[in-house]
Amino acid sequence: MSSPTRESIVHLALFDSAAALLNGNSSAPDVHPEVMRLFDEYRGKLLRYAVSFGIHVEDGEDVIQEVFLALFRHLRAGRSREHLPGWIFRVTHNLALKQRSARSRQRSRNSSDHSVIEAQLDSASNPEEQLDELQRRKRLLLIFNALPERDRCCLSLRAEGLRYREIAGVLGMSLGAVSNSLARSLARLARADEL
Prior knowledge:
Layout: H1 6-22, H2 32-51, H3 57-76, H4 84-102, H5 109-120, H6 127-146, H7 149-159, H8 164-171, H9 175-194
Helix pairs in contact: 1-2, 1-3, 2-3, 2-4, 3-4, 4-8, 5-6, 6-9, 7-9, 8-9
């Protein structure tokens, strides 16, 4: 499937609207502008979050398309508009987990992580600085990957700008548990970065 675009989301929403009309539900509100605004604002963040579960980018794009179709249906049905960013992150979380579970193939994390790290190195620095930075990133990535999944999710959501309360809602955790998870994870990363 190709990368989700505004047009693909609109087409899916229009198709879904037509199906609703055929089923006799013609009183559904027009939610296209709100869905498009949220798509523009959160698409990249949601994709990064989905991919953080270890799924391929293409699978992550499929997840994002499903998320916004679900959002369209949610809003058209007149359901709550409160905390929509948290809602779409929660749906992304659930669908990414399903996608990862559905894929039985094992991805070679080391080779893909290595190429991502190398691509991010600053080519203007000297070879010694590049090697130091590569080793630092590898060390931090190893620590991150060794964290429990819930801690990795907390860090990923925080990196996307979600507040503690939103993270708690997405992951079904208490505020205290989110705070403890982030403090513990950041302390481990800081210790590894000092080496």
